[in-house]
Amino acid sequence: MRLAVIDSEKCVGCQCCMFACTRMHKDSGLSKSCIGIKSAGGMQHGFLLVVCRACDDPPCARACPENALILRKGGGVLLKADKCTGCEICRKACILGAVFWDDANLKPLICRHCGYCAQYCPYQVIRLEKEGKKAEAANAQA
Amino acid sequence: MLKHDTLRNVLYINLSKKSFQIKDRSDLFEKYIGGAGVASQLLLEECPEGIDPYGPDNPIIMAVGPLTSLYPLASKTVAMFKSPLTGNLGESHAGGRSAVSIRMSGYGAIVIQGASERPCYLSIQGSKVFFRDASSLWGMGKSATVGKIIRANEPSSGLRTIMRIGRAGEKMIPYACVTTETYRHFGRLGLGAVFGSKKLKALVVSGKRSIPVADQKQYKDLYESIFKNATESPVMKKYHEIGTPVNVIPLNEMNGLPTRNLQATQFEHAQTISGEEIAKNYLGKRLACSHCPVACIHIAAIREPYEDEPFFYKTSMICYDYELIYAVGSMLGGSHVPGMMKLIDSIEAYGLDCMSAGVALAWATEAFEKGLITEMHTDGVRLVWGDYAGYQEALARIIEQPNEFYQALAKGTDFASSIYGGQDFAMTFGKNEMPGYHTGPAAHIGYLAGARHSHLDGAGYGIDKKIAANKSITAESVASELLAEERWRQILSSLVICFFARELYKPDVIIEALKLSGFEYTEESLRKLGEEIHTAKFRFKMREGFSFSNLRIPGRIYETPCTAGMVDEKFVRTALETIRKDVEAKIYDCS
């Protein structure tokens, strides 16, 4: 299962997905969000969705010097928190900017592709998909 | 309030000293919740009596509430200041990402004092505050360009608000607005001019953090029900689909749409400028404030060719709402939608309050028609109903102020009419230009007696519909209904809940949400607090010279038919007297 971006043109920038992700992490606010919505250079140009694409050969995992990011079945990675030293190399390795950061624990926040965020997208911009289509994560700057 | 909630922190910034400090103001938040409740106390603390609104002593106060970032639609920031337009209480609300960003930066409120020596902008990143030089942004033609440059220079894209002023704010035009996230505004009462007087070009606030709740399970359950209501309830549908301009046709049909400076309340081209028509022909995009699934922000795409260059086109994305369509559409007798949109776009670029700008132009058009002003005053511009080319010319001169007439018009409709005449049709209430409802006496009593002189204070237009159906409703009962509504709305605006969501946030929902944030309230104690906050605002107003007896009522409201028939002067005066007695008794009780 992977989180897929169906149509970023329909994104209204409400960021309800971001708040949902932090709630999924049993917290509230935006501290734990693994999805990001930002304007594409001003609201008039619509939005960029920063979403983990669940890469088949994820650069974040390759870059990790501690092997703290292990390949997830179906794409992407899982974090072995006990191995992670918080060096942030994974964050730099993801040119999409989809490795988010937990400022409290100083460790990466990795999307688990659970699809909880998609339940709160009022306009079906994102969806949890079984196979094939990859998340069309778009990003201009990390 | 819960132990680790950063809502309690108030950030005090001094622009003269380039210094800042963070104070724990649990005392204020425990007693007044947040938003309007806390901001009105901070205003009483920080704004010395009788000061010049353009002076360094005028504080800019912005406050959010405990539910911000926890629940959908608790997404407004309440700004308070002394208004340069009215010389009295300035209160303006805006959404965008402002409220979430302030809360996520770790504050319940921000107070900005002093004035900068040269143009600056502030970047607030959690506990850090940077004073940035903005000399090269000063005088820039478009407010949107300023946004673009700051966007490229500051971190935390997607997690920040960028509030800024345009040239109107720089020139301290008392109806200049502060724009946030391109399309949302602290529109009314001149916050932009206060920014300008401090040489504060922009304010960036960013952050992300956790907000504590008393019980995660109960929090998620409550969230679920509020979210479901926000997305499925029929009461939100109108904002969601056509947006606020859905009101154009019904108001026109019920004789409530102010037309040609309120000479009429039915506009023959209402259909052309209706929300339905604009959506059909021009709607290009819809946007939302942060943490609001409703997405009421409607953007028109206007494509126009360059006259001197074939195959070159410009597509402008222009935000429209009911009040804008009223102010620069029906009020100016305009029905050419691209012309109207381009005027809105220019007003946006200059950073003016669109409602005040439209009403000022409407007064000027009628004054021109009646010969009170001539082309000599208008610098050769012919002001004619519906002629957008002329309005663009006049608007540019409000900014440039080439002569005494435009200098006066730039001070607002009330001021300009005090010099050039035509006060009977200078459509201001408490010196604030009127909103788009001539539904009956309740609307006008609301504009006159509401703390902000706004249609949002007591929602009089709703009461007018009842008066239309039942003529035996008394002035006293209208007065008490308006007061009760305005007092309850103090609670909504202390929680910074968008008024569009007032039907979702009923007292029981608010009580439960507050409980999960560590606040214990009953409906009774909430209503009592609403009354206290309302009284605090009037204490400020009275201190600054507000008087119910000095209110200028434009005679025009008694001459033009409205939804409820005709507005009767005696009815209005009786209701005002009832409100005066009630408000003054409360002030006397408290002091």
Question: What are the SSEs and their pairings?
Answer:
The complex is a heterodimer of chains A (142) and B (591).
Chain A: E1 2-5, H1 16-24, E2 36-39, E3 47-50, H2 59-63, E4 69-71, E5 77-79, H3 89-93, E6 100-102, E7 107-109, E8 126-129
Antiparallel strand pairs in A: 1-8, 2-3, 4-5, 6-7
Chain B: E1 9-14, E2 19-24, H1 26-32, H2 35-46, E3 60-63, E4 77-82, E5 89-94, H3 98-104, E6 109-113, E7 120-125, E8 128-133, H4 143-153, E9 160-164, H5 167-170, E10 178-180, E11 184-186, H6 191-197, E12 200-206, H7 216-232, H8 237-240, H9 248-253, H10 275-282, E13 283-287, E14 297-305, E15 313-320, H11 322-328, H12 337-350, H13 354-369, H14 388-400, H15 404-409, H16 413-420, E16 428-429, E17 432-433, H17 441-449, H18 455-458, H19 460-469, H20 475-494, H21 507-516, H22 523-543, H23 556-559, H24 569-590
Parallel strand pairs in B: 1-6, 7-12
Antiparallel strand pairs in B: 1-2, 3-4, 3-6, 4-5, 7-8, 9-10, 9-12, 10-11, 13-14, 14-15, 16-17
Helix pairs in contact in B: 1-2, 2-20, 2-22, 7-21, 11-13, 12-14, 17-19, 17-24, 20-22, 20-24, 22-24
Mean pLDDT of chain A, to the nearest integer, reads 91
Number of strands of chain A: 8
Taking the alpha carbons of the first and last residues of chain A, their distance comes to 25 Å
Query: Can you name the CATH architecture of the largest domain in chain B?
Result: 4-Layer Sandwich
For the record, the count of structural domains of chain B works out to: 3
Range of strand content of chain A: 15-25%
* Biggest sheet character of chain B: 6 strands, mixed
Adjacency order of strands in the biggest sheet of chain B: 2-1-6-3-4-5
What's the order of the H and E elements of chain A?
EHEEHEEHEEE
CATH class descriptor of the largest domain in chain B: Alpha Beta
Shape of chain B: globular
Please list the strands of the largest sheet of chain A in the order they lie side by side: 1-8
The assigned structural class of chain A equals: alpha+beta
| Percentage of residues in helical conformation of chain B | 40-55%
